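Case study 2.
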Amino acid sequence: MSVLVLGTGETADALRDALGRRGLREAAGTPAAIVCAQSDLLRAFAMRDSSPAARPLVVVLTEDPVAAIEAGADDAGKEPDEVAQRVEVRLKIATSAVHKALGTSVEDDPAKAPLVSTKRRRPPLIFVVDDDEDARDLLEELLRDRYDVETFGDGETAVKRAKELLPDLVLLDLFLPGEDGFAVLTALRRDLTTADVPVIFLSAQGDADTKSQGLDRGADDYLAKPFDVQELLARVERRLKVAAEKEHFRALAGMDGLTGLPNRRSFEARLEEEIARVHRYKHPLALAMIDLDGLKKINDGRGHAAGDRAILALADALREVRRENDFAARWAGDEFAMLLPQTSAQAAELFAERLRLRLLKVSDETGLSVRASIGVAELSPTSEIVGEEAAADLLRRADEKLYKEKRSVRKRRVAHPTPHQSVAAVLFWLDHSVAAVLFWLAARLSSRARRHRQVVAVAGT
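Prediction:
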């Protein structure tokens, strides 16, 4: 993924060195990000506006990041290494959700990765389903230089393997032993796992009625035997490209445009899955609802660009404190949600503590007051409510905790974390049973400290 550094001299060289240490380098073509010092900001804006389709990011090295953001920069930092870090994070945000939804990954060298990609599995996996062994061998020979190929002589086996491997495309003969091609197509379309796998019918019976029937049942294309090799390859590549584009736009539909986190629709789907796992595997599930405090004040005082930056900073903090199996999403506006599988309410409080501590550092880094109210709730595996009712109940209880904290005049604010608070936040990463015990010990320390202050106050009177 290429970047462009504007300017010359020591400052520009320092920026190039910092970016290079993160694998971000200058290259020909439209850059994914324009990086500059404050003095070159207007020039960067002009270059960004001249490429409206690509719209590269503008990230600035400046002593006043907030002013640069308010002026229209996408991000800013006070040191070259901080600028490079912000460029890297921004570019990852633009690609990570899409790649995850597509089941792909960015190459090890970020300079080689496109900003937005319709990449699929490399090479794509194609199933050839034909009862004629010679036909299977011929198709495999034609395709294997470009694709991974698995061949099957019957439809039943092909359907079973498709559910396991999820091929990128199926070349399907109409006449098969046992289930014919129409029945195989129907089986693929009825299963959610394989419903969107592209299918091209291959058959010697190429009359209009048969083609129409196949397309009506959900086939993506139909090619009559004997076929032209170049036409076959062109149709295969076209179907793979169309499928990749559909996956790309499906991924974008489930992603929040500002933060790059999953949106509410994606969260609700994941919540349904996690609730099913609670009852299947007998593990608790915790939900944390997180609300950014003071966003209106930031918007009114510093502008909406600064408000967006505060929202993005909270999203980045959620990424940093979550564990591998946790699921963070932007719920709405200034509100976020985090699913914490295999986590009790007590352990979820450790997550909340860790997030609060992280936001203290974020506030120093951004020059903005990035604080959050957090409400947590737990779904126990012994709960008798399931499905949508369980989801609604969990959301309701977490929301109640959230707004109770927001309303309370004694709302918990971490100004200078005590030792036991810092330790408790780190313990969120430990085994849940150990963390729960240590959380209890931390609470005891806090209780003793309160009693000590009360005794001192009484003695003083």
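Residues 177 and 362 are 64 Å apart (CA to CA).
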